[in-house]
Amino acid sequence: xxxxxxxxxxxxxxxxxxxxxxxRLQDFVVSIEVEVDLESAAHSDRIxxxxxxxxxxxxxxxxxEGESMRLVEALASRIARGVLELPLVNAVSVRxxxxxxxxxxIQAAAVHIRRTRA
Length: 118
Fold this sequence. Notes:
Elements: E1 2-13, H1 19-23, E2 26-36, H2 39-44, H3 53-64, H4 72-84, E3 91-98, E4 109-116
Antiparallel strand pairs: 1-2, 2-3, 3-4
Helix pairs in contact: 3-4
C-alpha cells in the first residue's frame, strides 16, 4: 500500500491532565501517515485522484486547536477518526508529541496510534 506522510506539524493547544497544562498554550507536534492507493494519481497527475494534504493538516489543526482534552491518546484518536473520514484513506497512523513542563527535563512525551477503515 502507498503512503502519504505529513511530518512535524506544530500546533498550539490547551491539553493535559493537570489544570495548569490546560490553562496555557503548549506546542503539540503531529505526524500523520495515511495508507492509500496512489496509482491513479501517479498516472493522472491530478489532485482529484489523491488526497489533498491540506485536508489532513486541517483535521489535525482543528483537533489540537479545538476542545481541551486531558490525554494525548484522546487527541490522536480524534485525529485518526477525522482522517479516516477522508475519501481514499485505508489506514492512518498518528503520532503526537509534547514537552510536558511537569516532566522536565524531557525532549518529548509521545503517543503513536494506528487505525484502519472498518
